[in-house]
Write a structure and sequence with these properties.
Low-confidence stretches: none
Helix content: 55-70%
Oligomer: single chain
Structural class: mainly alpha
């Protein structure tokens, strides 16, 4: 196809180098944004690693059930095999659940008045085969979290309420992201439109970038009243990140391709 009136492939060497540095900066900013998302949200539920619950808590608020309660109510450790079916007697399981759902989790963990029925004793007898900080070498169970000391147990014993971001902060964040990200997306889109790539590629990238960005930012507010908004945010954010990164890389290639011969 003939070159557009303004062609990226017809620029001088100095202009190409300048644009390349700008596009590299954009890629660095996109990488930093991805890392920021991880660092900003990963500890909302006070558990390691980023999870759906972190995002749900940030935009909707959520009651995060103690991981120990979830495991015990799901029958752990019986799912590991028949050899572990009797590791935790049902009476002890019921007592641990009652303890974890009480308001005396810290006080009763190693309460001397409970004797062998204290949670610390039950965990020591039934759980440390797999959940010691350094489990025995002969165990066949998959290694997981440590429950050897109170400092370990308290990380997974408490249920938590994650409060959503306040409307005031969300308005400020929307204002900042909408103007900044839309401006970046518009510049990338305009550069794509004057590139020499096939029409289907140029128009397709612009379509995905624009729609994904609008859905990503709009879903922040949708998520406050509908949990599906969280999924929209995650999916749209992924599509936006991939499409604008691919477009930026495409433009870097376009800038250094030789000008088309007339």
């Amino acid at each position: 196809m003939p070159d557009a009136p303004l062609s990226l492939r017809g620029l001088s060497c100095f202009a190409r180098l300048g644009l390349t540095c700008m596009l590299l900066t954009v890629l660095g900013g996109l990488a930093a944004s991805a890392m920021h998302v991880v660092h900003h949200y990963e500890n909302r539920d006070e558990l390691p690693e980023l999870s759906f619950q972190d995002f749900e808590g940030a935009y909707r608020g959520v009651r995060a059930i103690s991981p120990l309660i979830v495991a015990l109510e799901n029958g752990h450790p019986s799912e590991l095999g028949s050899e572990y079916a009797d590791s935790l007697p049902e009476a002890d399981r019921a007592f641990l659940l009652e303890w974890l759902k009480s308001d005396r989790i810290s006080e009763d963990y190693d309460n001397l008045d409970l004797g062998d029925l204290s949670p610390a004793e039950i965990i020591d007898q039934s759980c440390l085969e797999c959940h010691a900080r350094t489990p025995p070498a002969n165990t066949t169970a998959p290694q997981s979290i440590s429950l050897e000391y109170w400092d370990d147990v308290k990380k997974v014993a408490f249920s938590r309420t994650i409060h959503p971001t306040s409307p005031e902060i969300l308005i400020t964040s929307t204002h900042t992201h909408a103007l900044g990200m839309a401006s970046l997306a518009l510049i990338i889109a305009l550069m794509l439109m004057i590139s020499s790539y096939p029409k289907w590629y140029r128009h397709g990238c612009v379509f995905v970038i624009g729609v994904a960005l609008a859905l990503d930012l709009g879903s922040w507010w949708i998520a406050r009243v509908w949990i599906g908004g969280v999924w929209i945010m995650l999916i749209a954010g992924l599509f936006f990140g991939v499409s604008i990164t691919l477009s930026t890389l495409s433009l870097m290639l376009e800038v250094w391709l030789p000008a088309a011969k007339n």
